[in-house]
Amino acid sequence: MKKELLIIVAVAVFVLAKGSIFVVDEGEQVLVTQFGKPVGDIRQAGLHFKIPLVQELHRFQRRIMQWDGDPNQIPTKDMRYIWVDVTARWRIADPLLFYTTVANERGAQSRLDDILDSVVRDAVSGHLLVELVRGTDYIPPRGAEEEVFEIEGEKIDVDTLIGREVILAELLEKASQSTPEYGIDLIDLQIKRINYVEQVRQRVYERMISERKQVAAEYRSEGEGERADILGQMGRELRTIESEAFRQAEEIRGNADAQAARIYADAYNRDREFYAFVRSLEAYRNSIQGNSRLVISTDSDFYKFFQKIE
After folding, report:
1. Where is average pLDDT lowest: 39-53, 125-139, 180-194?
2. CB 115 within 8 A of CB 102
3. Does residue 25 contact residue 32 with C-beta atoms inside 8 Å?
4. Which of 203, 205, 195 is nearest to 73 (CA)?
5. FRET partner for 227 with CA separation of 20 to 30 A, picked from 77, 143, 179, 260?
């Protein structure tokens, strides 16, 4: 009987000891409640103690968590209907306040849906589309036409437009004003994607294609002009080269003819009789061929070398 009692006592002591010890991990924080009422929160990782069967533990993440909203169709200030997809980073700053207001992470996600969706909708509808998509330090390309924005007949100065970074900072500041009352610290808010609605997207694509074709036509026209200039310059250079080559060829041919004439003249002046004889033999060979007959008078110069043959 005593052994059974000792065993029961030992088991009870073990159960109570096990129920009074708990471990807090590095990435979590624990809220301790007693009969449903919060009595403290533990943020230090390690081994801790509680009253068994009386106190209850509620574990929450201490790490930074992600919030992803559903893409919403929102009109911009210039009435461009777009899909906006937003993401945020948050963490539990006050476990006690977090537990008493939203109870758990699912409740926090739902509350963030209401806060961030409202803030994003107000911001998008209060700004132009160009402000949402371009950077704060945007500089138009050199030679680009100045953009003109007009809303309900009123022109807007381009210099007064702000960029995406400024809008996101305003979004984060405005949303952060509502989250501390739920024990939530909103760390960052970013726009993941902006896209036109399906009805507008096709028209935008057609406009982009038309603009690209226009730019391509301009480049093609410039290329044709450059091609014509290059071909014209090449033709002029070719004609100059041919003219210079023809001039040099004529000079060389003239010098050669002059030199040949000088050589002929020198040879002729040295032995006129021999030169006349050689030229006459060539004339005989060319004029008397086959069965042809040559009829000349005996006193002809062409016949004088035959007269000397004895």
Report:
1. 125-139
2. no
3. no
4. 195
5. 143
DSSP 146-203: PP-EEETTEEE-GGG---HHHHHHHHHHHHHTTSGGGTEEEEEEEEEEEEE-HHHHHH
Amino acid in position 6: L
pLDDT digit string (tens) for 172-199? 999 999 999 999 999 999 999 988 877 7
Structure tokens at 217: 């036509």
Residue in the block written with tokens 């984060």 = 172
In 3-state terms the chain splits into helix, strand, coil percentages (rounded to 5) of: 55, 20, 25
* 240 secondary structure, DSSP code: H
Taking the C-alpha atoms of residue 143 and residue 147, their distance in angstroms, rounded to an integer, is 12
Closest CA to 85 of 74, 104, 105, 69: 69
How far apart (Å, rounded) are the C-alpha atoms in residues 247 and 59? 101
